[in-house]
Write a structure and sequence with these properties.
There is one protein chain. The protein is built from 11 helices and 8 strands. With about 260 residues, it is α/β, with parallel strands linked by helices. An 8-stranded mixed sheet has the order 1-2-4-3-5-6-7-8, sandwiched between helices. Helix 5 packs across helix 7. The two termini are about 25 Å apart.
């Protein structure tokens, strides 16, 4: 069963979310990347909703959720996820996040470990990019809008081979990126600019899966290896031939490994 709903956070921001799967199944929360929305998880919904209550939401500043003026912090974005779980009366959920969403999942596993069952950190790191990189990204969007960064970001999101093979998915990703609120995108860039969890990643106790992409330039495989090394109860999978949005480029493998982690034992 699928439904689209809204929830209001403690600071009055409206978040759009969707729920799929049995009402009495364990909850699996998906957190989207910078510049996408709930649509990025479409290949995961049907296979995972057979055994889980799949909850997706448009992160603050993205999709149909509100985009208040920034800057945002990683903590604020994580508190939004907790507000959604609270509204659904979910005491503990499995969490799967990619890129910025992966950092949100990591924050939750570090600071609210009692709320996280098992965790998937996909194409992410304890520190993504640098202050200079994010400041340049912010300046580019302020000057030219989302179109100014579209081509470069799309090339990092999806490998050249995939873009050629699957123009429909490529078009969907392009639409998500171009439709992202300027203020929301910039505010989330500030969250990434300032976020650094490297000194805390080793405190994660949740059984975890770290996923990387061989061709990922945004969060290279070396960063996935570093995160895996920091989190003792973790497994590592680097998917050959894929870039940043590994869940879209290799959905069958992605889904199979996530299901294996979440159903084991």
């Amino acid at each position: 069963m699928r439904s689209v709903r809204t929830v209001q956070t403690d600071d009055g921001i409206r978040l759009d979310y969707r729920v799929d799967g049995p009402a009495d199944a364990p909850v699996l929360l998906f957190v989207n990347s910078l510049g996408t929305n709930v649509r990025m998880w479409e290949p995961q919904v049907a296979p995972l909703a057979e055994q889980f209550r799949v909850v997706r939401y448009d992160s603050r500043g993205h999709g149909r959720s509100d985009a208040p003026p920034g800057p945002y912090t990683l903590e604020r974005l994580a508190l939004d996820a907790l507000a959604l779980l609270d509204a659904l009366d979910v005491e503990q959920a499995h969490v799967c996040g990619l890129s910025l969403g992966g950092m949100v999942a990591l924050w939750l596993a570090i600071h609210r470990p009692e709320r996280v069952g098992r965790a998937v950190f996909a194409n992410t790191a304890a520190r993504i990019g640098s202050e200079a990189i994010w400041s340049a990204r912010i300046e580019a969007v302020e000057a030219g809008g989302m179109a100014a960064i579209h081509d470069a970001v799309l090339a990092r999101f999806l490998s050249a081979g995939f873009r050629a093979r699957d123009p429909e998915t490529t078009r969907t990703v392009s639409e998500m990126l171009l439709s992202t609120s300027l203020s929301g995108y910039i505010a989330c860039c500030t969250a990434l600019r300032d976020a650094d969890l490297r000194h805390l990643a080793s405190t994660v106790e949740a059984p975890s899966l770290v996923i990387g992409g061989e061709l990922d330039e945004a969060t290279p495989p070396a960063q996935a290896e570093d995160l895996h090394a920091a989190i003792v109860p973790s497994e590592l999978m680097v998917i050959p031939g894929v870039a940043h949005l590994s869940n879209l480029e290799a959905p069958d493998l992605f889904n199979r490994r996530v299901l294996d982690l979440l159903t084991r034992g």
